[in-house]
Records
---
Amino acid sequence: MKAAVLIASRELRDRSRLFVIAAAMAIVPFAAVFTVRENRPLAIATVAAFIAAAYTCSLALMLGVSTVGRELTERRLSFLFAKPVSAPSIWAGKAVSALLTVLGAGVIVILPAYVFAHRGWQDMWSAGGKPVIAYATGMSIMLFFVGHAVSTLLRSRSAMLALDFAMIAISAITMFSLARPLLLGGGRDLVLGMLAIAALAMLLLFAIAPAWQLAQGRIDLRANHRALSTFLWSGAAIVLIACAAYTWWVITPPIDSMTEHFAVEQSRAGDWVYVSGQTPGRGQYLASFIVNTSTKDRERIMVSPWSRVHFSNDGRTIAWLEPAELLLPRGHTFRLYTRRLETGAEPVVSPLELPMPREAALSDDASRIAIIRANQIQVYEIATGNLLGAATVTTGDLESMIFAAPNLVRMVERRSPSAIGMAEFDVATKKFTRTPDRPHRPGHAAGLQLTADGSRVFLRREGTIIDARTGATLVTLPLTSDKPFFNAMLRDGSAIVTRDSKLYHFDRNGALVAEIPLPVQRAGVAAQIGASKLLLGVTGQNPKQWRMLIVDLTTHKVVTTVDQVLGPVPSWNGPVLREFPDEATLIGMDASRKLVMWDARTGKKRPFHS
Amino acid sequence: MSATIEAADLTIRYGKKKAVDEVTLNVGSGTVYALLGRNGSGKSSLVRCVLGQLRAAAGHVSLFGEDVWKHRARLMERVGVVPEDPDAPPESRVRDLAWFSSCIYSRWDKIAFDRRMQRFAIDTASRFGELSKGQKKQVSLALALATSPEILVLDDPTLGLDVVARKSLFEEVLGDMADRGITVLVTTHDLGPVEAIADRVGMLDRGRLVLDEEVETLKARFRRIRFANPPMALAQANFEAATVRQWGTGTEAVVSNYDDVAFARLRNESEMPVADVSPMTLEEIFIAVVGEEAGVRS
């Protein structure tokens, strides 16, 4: 300790010229008096802060590069090593003196301006100037330590330098690889925190590594390089291992620890459920799982929170998109992942790069994808990325797109603010056809619903069902807008309207088939159950009002009621009403916002995580 | 006499190159040991290793019986060093260097340092980098001696100095030795003054210690013999010739195991017309041992 203080003291004396230069620089800001007419104190303070920041940073770099490296190169470090002084004391003394020189020089530059233009400093603080000083101080410290390390490595001119560059590359790639799953899971806050802690740990390593370097290398430049590299990269490896452990901990939360559910989707077959949500201590990171409600198999999958998860209509595949550019997670190209809904199956990434997910549709078996790109509709085979067919499409925004058949893609286009139109592309013949424009009130895609075969389009706000091929009106439901209503089109083209506490069932020709009383007001259509049942849901701010109903359209009765449960809710992921089998186990959220499974036949609930 | 400096099977490498190759040497307490060798023979590397500044690839070095690599900082309290190239910070003033040393060494002798500075006529307000080469060496020596060392290591202390400066430097060392009887390890090319003070000498040749002996013994066994005949007779007397060369019409040989009795017998038996048998200086022995014409070394 004493030796370190003595070394620092001696070196500070030797660097007295740098303080003289700083004093000369301290006069420069006052030249602003002659060049600025308004708020001269602020101008003086700003110039002083800028000069101080520039001077301290460049001084820190210069001292970092020369403090030990130059003495090693010029064989002058033996002066201290021939004395009863330990290597850590040598480094501590040199580092302290260098940092005191840097910070002292900065204070000398600032001090006159601070004293004589105090009001300017106050103005600058209030204008956000404080962080500049803090950043300059932090940057100076960092430049000193990193400058020393880089100087030692470069001065040795050793072949080990190649190894250092390789380690830098490996560390960067490893860090990127560790950050990737966190970013994909929306844990940007975690990545920033992890990077900040890793950077601080590395700075600490850079600060203490030279003590080890000098203890092991002493006056031998190459031995210094070897010791420094060994220490730094060993430390970096520990930091990376810690980051890897942290990343692993974040991305592998147990499913039953999930507290906030971000998305819950259920496959058409009903067996598989996709759940994503937040877990304690993991910030904004969203964990994603697929769970088989029959076998209780649960598997973690990596899905971005901004990705759209889609179950194929055959219920056998889950698909999702991830941004192709990780650093621009809201960029415009995505990669498509598919995973068979089988225990132990691995996700498969398609070689395709896709545009915005809104302009894409999956075939029922998830083997094909249709996308709109550069005024073209393109249909690809997902596994190979082969283009199966393409055609030029006319202008217009896409409202909905669906595979009506493996070789037939149907679209609803928004052709103007007040008109829509239908179009279809036959993949086999490469033929693209369009219907004439049809007036339609401006609205969201959710205002449209298609049958699973895409043959009918339900304009829900108007209560009109049209032929998807010709655009001709098929049915106009007798709706009035005096009271709120919900509606949906079923698989067979018939339609449901709920209003007040009544459910109206219209056949595919628009004739009223049944009027069924409901025990609740304002129930929305969530899904079709089996051949003849309907799942209705009652939402609300108060979870105690939540209720799910199953209505038998044959007997015209409510057959199952589940209170204080909401879900499955209508999917926002497709234009087709979802369907579940009669015996499906359904997923919802209870009043305490915990996931529950309930039996579609009996309405019996049980905890999801049981 | 216990060994103050001890090196055992010491090997120093720079990459694949061996600078010092399995050297073993012992320097007893109070001994003046002159380590000689040509440029690049490994002297400075050996000295740096002895000072714990350079790590040996193999073998070990101890000072006062302690491993110098492990306990360097503590051991340097008892060691004064005059390096080959003056290594003090050039920006530091001489008085600051003295102040720094006085704070670090518990046995700092301020009076001795000041006296030496007066004797060398060096202004202590001068910056070290502004001094002449000779003055730098003098300051380094004064700094080293003022620590009251038990071991003084002089690594080529007279390199680049003029005759007067060399003489002054060695006088200082001799004076201090007379006062305290310190152990000295000196490497030098300046063999004249060393011959006068060295008790023992070691010679390094391409990293190997080819000779390690008391100076008096060394000088006693080395002789230059000049004679008219070819040198076959030398072998009959079991003389080992370090060098043999033509000398006029005769031969000059340096023998490394000279013995008066053996030589008299040889002369009588072979009726050899001996022209001259002369003792050799350390410098001449050095040339014979490690010079271009060196043959048998010991």
---
Amino acid sequence: MSNHDPLDELFGPQDDPRVDAAMRAIGDLLLEEPDELTARRHRRAMAAARPVGIRQVVERSVVAGVAATAAALALAAGGLLPGPAQDVVADLASLVGLDLPRPTTEGDLTEAPASSEKGEAPEAEDASPPPSGRPDTPDASTPAVPTPDTPTPETTTPDTTTPGTPTPDTSTPGDVGGDDDRTAGDATRRSEDTPGRPRELDRPADEPGRSGAAPRRPSEAPGRTTAQQGRSSEAPGRPSEIPARSEDTPGRSEDAPGRSGGTPAAGDTPAVGDTPAAGDTPVTDDSEGLPPEQSEGPDDGAVGLPELPQGPTLPQWPERAFGAQVHDAAPPADGL
Amino acid sequence: MGRGALLGPTFVSVLRAARRGRQSAWDAIYRDLAPPLLGYARSQNAPDPEDLVGEVFLEVVRSLSRFEGDEEERFRGWVFTIARRRLVDARRRSGRRPADLTAPGVLAERAGTYEDDALERLSLEDVRALLACLSEDQREVMVLRLVAGLRTAEIAEVTGRHPEAVKGLAKRAIARLREVLGTPGRSADDPPGDEDVPPPSGPGRR
């Protein structure tokens, strides 16, 4: 294209000024700015239709990254993430000097949140630990003995404490006679259970998990009330539970004392002997008298007991749950 | 006369920034092109000139990546090509005919009445009346030249004609204007004649 345009001559100065003026008027008057509203509407539409530039992409991704980080930190701070994720977030947070709770054991991390939400103590938990290859199994098999001694890392620690607690309790004669055996048996259970769930004890985060488990108790409660009399001996076996029960069922006044003191696992020593059968695996012990399911989940439930209305519907979760609860409950009992 | 390249030397940088999505660049393009586009749409009797302009800019935004080159004239030609297509679509949708800008009677009253001084104060209505004297093709060439500032080549591209055809249309349009404006000194009292549009030079109008 050359710079010379044939139309330049045609539309150049005219010999007739009237034509000149008319053409000037056409060029000027037809140029009309769109009104403000229309212009704004057009620009908005253009902005919406405009392809996103790299800069905008970067800006948006930064914003999204910040939001995601904040969310992850919030979840991690609450211990709500599954174990591996919690670890990762904690690692990352540590880079910037933030301390976030880390899961001690993998199993706990992953399972805890789920159980807490559902209010169920996942049976899988208890069931899983026993698998032969695991370090836990041995602990379980050796009931009371290891407790004090085994300062095993984190996982075992909690267990040790539990058994430890009972000992002092033994001094408390409060436990109803005859219960002792049971207590012992319970103690063994505990010892067994505990290994399986090392974490929960440590974790403050377990609390939520317990609350979730709570529902089980109520179900147990009803069953117990009736069974208790028959079981009077059994009941005592669960020391830590006692406090909770005493509240629940006044009728159990008898048990209460025993239980309150029950923590004592005093029976522990004897219990060990009792449990022989269980000796193999804690689960077996539990399973003897109780339905297999109970052995696992219930630990957490201890906390919530009093609050839950006894639902006669729950008889399926009998004592086992207690056994488990005792575990969790144990630490508080100590405090008491 | 004629608008020419308003962005001038800054056009290349503006176009580049617009391709990167810069809001300020798009604002500059809109400021530069919206008025002639609106004038073109009105002069062509578009059913809804403002909407047409909006549609054109939307398409410009979406299709900018397909525009090659960095000459402002070419860019303007490309934009008006889009506008013309949209105009054809809009007319087709509305079923409106393009030519009825002004009632013939209005032009009849006006024709030949313009005094020199009056021509300096033409209103928009006057301009529309003048344009209504032209054929559709002549009018389009006039507007694309005088309002959009396009050159022969771009007008040819926009209208899909050969440049020589464009030149011929432009010549005839100017001659027609001269006819409509009449000879200087002709007063409005002079009878317009038998025809609706009384060109001073008599018949041979269209």
---
Amino acid sequence: MVTLLLTLPLIAGLAAFIIEDDALRRRLLLGASAGHSALTAALFLARIQPRSACISAPAGEWFGLDALGLIFLGITSVLFLGAAVYAVCYLELEKRNPGEEAEEGFIFNNAPEAVFTGCLLLFLAAMTAVTASRNLGILWASVEATTLLSAPLIYFHRHKRSLEATWKYLLICSVGIALALMGNLFLGAAGLKTGFGLNLDALLSGAQQLDKPLLKAAFLFLFVGYGTKMGLAPFHTWLPDAHSEAPSVVSALLSGALLNCAFLGILRAIQICSGAGLADFTGGILTLFGLLSLITSGLFILGQRDYKRLLAYSSIEHMGIMALGTGLGGGAVYGALLNAIGHSLSKAGLFFTSGLILAAYKTKRISEVKGLLGRAPRTAALWLTGFFLITGTPPSGIFLGKFLILKAAVASGKYLVTGVYLVFLGIVFAGLARIFIDMSFGVRDGAAPEEKPFVEPAGMIWPVCIFFACVLTLGFYVPAWLETLLNSAQALIRKGP
Amino acid sequence: MNTFAELIIVFIILLNLVLAVSGSLSVCIRLAAIQGVAAGLLPLMAVGGMRGRAMAFAGFIILLKGVVFPWLMFRAREKTGARRDVDPLIGYPASIMLCLGAFAASSWLGSRLPLPHSGVAFIIPASLATIFTGFLLITTRAKAITQVLGYLVIENGIYIFGLALFVEQPLMVELAILLDVFVAVFVMGIAIFQISREFDHIDTDQMAELTDWHRPEDAKW
């Protein structure tokens, strides 16, 4: 089953490079992503039915899915299906109107659609491999593959700004991930006497016998390496550039799926460390860098002038919250995982919506987008809904996640952490509120040029609606199967209080 | 056999110093390639017994690092017309001082790390110093192509570090890592073509349009 899950997007991606017919290639994209989602759903079903638990139990030396991997696979698969529907409409739009650079107004070309679709599908295959790998070496190779395969996606619009973003992304992430390779080597050395190699199951079951100082070194390198890819401050510098210059559908995937995959790399390291009794060590580091990301994003959101960069900084904020929750341990880990699901769905929805705004206004400057509600009421409604969901206004699912983390922080008596957390959540809310409200209701100075109302294609609206509905539902009601899954994932990460 | 391995290690350390001071791009590409080949020879010396798999793998690494990568880099250099020097952002004396300092620090760190003892002296300091030299090339050289070179030097260092720790990864993992590095260099090479076409230069210090640190004169925002 897992093999099929890996090979389906791989073959479809390779096929997309050689198919010349646009319509056929787009159907392939839709079909492959639907197939991927169906297979993922089947894996979830196999897991839910208690008697068939043995089917989904991690098997095989290289690939297998545990609760943690399954959650992240589910997020990736659902997000990709939405993105595929959106991308088909988007490519149709791009074909009709040649690109005009949003900032400087020059005309540019797009990369060939075959390359775009092919890389998109291969990117899915690489992300699937990340979620399903049971060997840290394979995990590393898959994470590096996601970087290389998504670089051409960021450079879809061929102009200077996207090229600069692509170069920074390639170089910073490749070098960052090279450090994670050092971490893998340290981990291998830590288990040298016992001959564990990098097999996750062997490392987990024999974590007590690992050499502690080497394990600490391994964790630091893995944390910095995958943390670069995850966008934790101060290693986040590539993230706002790449997210703002990539096409919106790619930004959504980068933010919603790829950052989570990098987070999974860190979670695997934490699993091993807490097995070896180093939970306090990892917890301290995660809390520190989580708060640092929260603070950085809060400060940059306040003065932000580009709405796609704004969303990128909000992603850094949420990565910080997830790191913080994992660092605090206990019930906060559940909160962090819930936050991961909520963030992925709502941020992808917001990036999709930002693509619609970009299509309507042809600019990414916040100061030039005013009166969205009058110009494109449906987009504006989604934009505002997304704002309430992402900031964790009840009844958003993100509220539940953030609240659980707050509760754990207070319960563990870390009042300084709690204080900083609350203050910066407030700052982020205020910063986002000012910008989102201004964009939706504001009035443009001077005589506005004659604007015809903007009509959104249905395929670009529906994925957003469905994602937002899911996040809302999570706030009211976490289904029993998801609850079980989250609980077992939490148990995997940390034997909390 | 260890004397041979130690000679290679000394050679690799010296290559780091030469990389830090050499001003010609083509010399730098060759030096990185030679370093890769030297690193590829190491396992054959240290293991002693010549096993088939190790031989084949070392041959593959030498082919990749000694032939394929330099070829890709020279192609990128020619297509972009970047024939001049490496444009360091800091002076060569400063570069070599940093490199020497890094070696001193690596020696100290290598003696402190509780690593399994390998029979080859200085292999850990050499690997750490190589990684540092790679970072130095990435951060203090202006051209995009030298940044790729720095990435390759870091990879060399990590490879030596892995040898020093005796971490034997499964073949599938090793191959996946090599494939990734190969594709990385390939994709970066393509990106360099695009940069030279779009900007008419490949100086990354001039690529500074995307930032959140706005100057007062961009008040139009």
